[in-house]
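[Structure tokenization] protein backbone as discrete codes

[Encoding] learned vocabulary of local backbone shapes

[Begin record] amino acids and matching fold tokens:

___
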Amino acid sequence: MKFFIDSANIDEIREAASLGILDGVTTNPSLVAKEGKNFRALLDEILAIVDGPVSAEVVATDHEGIVTEARELAAIHRNIVVKVPLIREGLKAVRQLSDEGINTNVTLCFSPTQALLAAKAGATYISPFIGRIDDVGTDGMDLIQQIVTIYQNYGYKTEVLAASIRHPMHVLQAAMIGADVATIPFKIIDQMFKHPLTDIGLQRFLDDWKKNEAKLV
């Protein structure tokens, strides 16, 4: 499974990259707005840190507008993946962008039939929002399972990118089902390192070492 960080915060991205486990970055208009920086300048900073896919989202909602913005974004760097909303005009644009060799991440997916349409349109990634599905009383992991099964049945190359991750169990479950990518907020990446038995065990080792006045050399 590939790990992307779901963030537009440079400090978080730099720290995640330093861990040696980061494969890419996803951003969205809300995350970018939160940083209060120029969008292009922010993208340039991210691209300088991470040598992997960096998703940048269009804000147009009509076919021509989406295609125009997508071309501009894709021209910035070879690692840019254009995020496109899963709407009728969006999928029209995805088909055209795919034919032009522009990578796309179809976002705001909430059903397996939407995911099927995105794959047929030529999406590079599909982003089912599992946390938001959980929020309305259904199981987001069921959606991941359905999409993975459909894509495997027909050999679609579109990668399943589990998004809207709320806790480490989402990452575990998505990995067990077979999602290709998880895009994870920094605080969840940090939580994945932690286990009380690790802390207890390490402290015991250090205490025993100190008690016996052991030396490394």
